[in-house]
Amino acid sequence: MSAAEPGRTVALVGNPNTGKSTLFNALTGLRQRVGNYPGVTVARKSGQCDCGDGTKVELVDLPGLYSLSASSPDEQVVIDALSGHLADDRRPDAVVVVIDATNLLRNLFLASQLSELDLPVVLVLNQADVAAEQGVKIDADLLSRRLGGVPVVLTSAWKGEGIAAVRRAIGEALRTRVRMPAVEWPPLVEEALADVAAGVAADIGRAPGRADVERLLFDSTTSVGQRLGWDAPRREAVIRAARDKVRRAGYNPLAAEPLIHYERLRRLLEGVVQGGGNRTGGSAAVDRVLLHRVFGPIVFAGIMLGMFAAVFWLAKFPMEWISGGVDWLKSVVAPTLAGLPMVQSLVTDGMIGGVGAFLAFLPQILILFLFVGILEDSGYMARAAFIMDRLFSWCGLNGKSFVPLLSGFACAIPGLLSTRTIEDPKARLATAFAVPFMSCSARFPVYALMCAAFIGPLYGPGWESVVMVGMHCVGLLFAVPTAFVLTRFVLKVKPQPFVLELPRYQMPKPRDVLWRMWQNAAEFVSRAGTVIFAITIIVWALSYFPRDPAVEQRIRAASPGAATEVVDAQVQSAYVEQSWMGRFGKAVQPIFDPCGFDWKITVGVLASFPAREVIVSTLGVTYSVGEGAEADSKHLQQVMRDAKWTEGPRIGTPIFSLAAILALMVFFALCSQCGPTVATLAQETGGWKWAAISFFYMTALAWLMAVAVYQGVSRLA
Amino acid sequence: MNFDAVLIGAIVGVAAGWLLRRWLAAARRRKEGGCAGDCGCAAKIQPKK
Question: Is there a contact between B12 and A541 if contact means CB atoms under 8 Å apart?
Fold first, then answer.
């Protein structure tokens, strides 16, 4: 068969962290994000997959789940998708179940449950290479025969092994439509299931699906009754009677399902799996050190310090090359636009100055994500989460909060989406409230600018990484007590145990690490070329206009004998001060005066509310326009180092004192300055109430802490 | 009005209009149950009511 069948859909399901997304990427050629810890995929993603014979199907990657008993929103997505209850979706035509070959018995439980969905199935035993390394031999043909001909394929998705066989197996499953054989329930349990089915049919007037009946009988809480429109009081009576029958069969009704499935699976796997033993092996020995109560946190802090030191050290020269390139571009472009002074200023001070200041941090972003990718891919990040869990559990956050909070360090939006893995809605809300405190990559250029311009030159290069680690901890330090108050006193969240399946250690895959680095770099450059570029133009216009010629005439008339460069600088400075941006900044500056911010920093802070990284380009523009031709030959960092107060009690002293730069960094670490994050919080919490509370709380906290830091450090200094 | 000012007006107008259009599109996406970020992804997970 070679005709394209665009209407066919195949779902990819499996336990968390079995390599579903890696397999999805290999089958579709897409680049869905993968992670070496559970919970990375929280929404459905789809791509086109070739079945090897020209047949095309839509492959849907779904979040990981351990069973069909949904307890969290992401698990519900999978069950809804498989049963055709997801908006805009119909039931898939087949299911590919991805199974960790090193832990066949536990992973097959989900596949065994799927037999009740009456869908053609392909079993993919992934990480077969690791199983072989552990001495585990799997007879895939025997397993397939025992399952009545269900295709069983051994793969190593990250090595690209067995992918062609999976394609063929999908095509075969669609043609032969072989289902997983249904489990044989003991007679009394079967009778109980029939009673529930009859009860539902009698009340709603149609027969329910077998999978729905099982959920109603075996799960303590389920939304199936509500979805079917089965009346609650009548439902409870029928289910109670059916569960009594299950008890008479010798089973606890809420534990019967896994017990019966596992009995069946043990019989099924006899002779299929041979060998194996200690599956953790070397990982366990390494974990004795890395997860040690004392050494674990020390190693973690050391790795973080080393990472930031390497980021600064390795990025130093590329950053200088980019800054040099920006200056060269300005010097080349400026003369060509000499006849159009306004356009000349827009292009050199606004576009090149603003976007160039932002782009100078590209090498640091690249190197940072290279290290993060290595740590994630090696399996260390999950260990870091385990170490951090001691802190989380103290503040009452759910154990599953670690993935959202960890994701929040890259960007708050995927972090907020990851909260869907948390079952308890109150714990989910508390975690969502804590996520924006994590120091996302958009804060990085702000810290990097301050560290590179002031901390390094003033205190030595080693202090740059110390301050960077410190700034990444500031958000965490405030997220923990905030979550503590929220979980204990406001939401009253019940503590829940933390269960985390630690992935095995592995050599980072260069392709995945480099791809993630490339993705982040591309996003950074794309933002520079789109949002940052557009905002830079607006900021330039606001800091350039109005331009009253009387200002220049007055200054030139007042200083007849002064050097031309001095008068030019005075004129540029006066123009910026009387611009719309200058007037606005000066009007608002008293609010930020206790934080040590002058009007230009104030303008940068206010312009950064839609996206925090905008401050770098805004400072680039305001200082370029304000300094005029002089700034063209100096990097933004030097211009900032030279900036001094021109009025008030601090006249003549540097604007960017140690107190002011620490206050500015603390303000950015805590303030809610990201429009999409606020909108995502509103979406994920089901309304604007918590998003508004989060915005005002974080902004007020940021201001208070910036004042405390500025006043405290000023007095100490 | 000179050519310089007209050019500046056009550039600033296009930039402001583009930003406005982008934010409106993101708001529309959110309303339809799509991803609330401005990443442009098509993630959509709202279950059927």
Answer: yes
